[in-house]
Please model this.
Amino acid sequence: MTDSGEGKVKTVSDTRPGEHMAAEVAEQPDVLTRLVQARSDIAAVGKTIAERRPRFVLLAARGTSDHAAIYAKYLIEVLLGLPAGHVSPSTTTLYRAEQDLTDVLLIAVSQSGGSYDLLEVTQAARAQGALTVAVTNTPSSPLQEVAELAVDVRAGIEKAVAATKTYTATLLALYLLIDSVRGGEAEHVGDIGELASRTLTDTAEDVERAIARYRFADRILTTARGYSYATALESSLKLSETSYLPTRAFSGTDLLHGPIAAVDAETAVVGIAGTGAGGGSMLDVFDTLSERGADLLCVGSAAHSVPTAALTIPVPETAEEISPIVEVLPIQRLALGLSLARGFDPDRPRGLHKVTKTR
Model:
């Protein structure tokens, strides 16, 4: 499911297959531009966090929002030099565990801000001494009400079941938040809307080639390292929920520690490689995948430098820390296109709704 507790149930019975998802993918450059323009609100939250000087950061999220939280974990550990970890909501909701969270920052990420378990975790963390921040796409949501601070990702109403614009807006909001904590001026994302627009335009033909090649795939594996690991996870989710493809996401290193044995010539692989340390570390992984006969689609600003790839989708080069905002865009379009090519409607995925209640 795209996001636990999502509260945006919309009727799609009168629309063409994939109409909502296609529109929201295309809307992302404007969404990202508007969010950068509202940076001052997020910077104010970042200033408060910096003044409180947290010693550790905990992240709480589900589904697509959890992939954004994994991206935030890399940002926090690399840019702020603070240890960061993921909350296990069940320790609070099922086992009623109590921890000393003095001087801890808890960031709860939820598109709807209505997930029961995240609400309970945030309430408990605040009672146990944590500074709590809600990052949501729903102003005045229950999660914002229980958290001490709030960040609005400003993506607007999302009608498609598969989250697209809320995902990239959440990535950007988290980057702006963490960058402001370190005293940054968001210089790497000043033109992010333009970069997103160029990416969607420039990759259109490459995406169509990938749709034609992988429309009959039986299973797909996604892989990346570093900041882009979040992209691998999100790609796997998008492909499985829109095209019903069995997908698995692995970090490049974990892939070589056992799962590589299941890779053969029948395996399609989406590998993400940008310029930077994470993408550079994937080259040996791609070589090993090639030796196993995998059919590799490489996406990212360094895709052109992977000679073993059957197809590539190059995207504009950015600072490595913001590359996940850009590199996921053609993969969203790939998921949309594969769903339609396989005779499905990504706006009506079977068994899924915008609301998933978890405790």
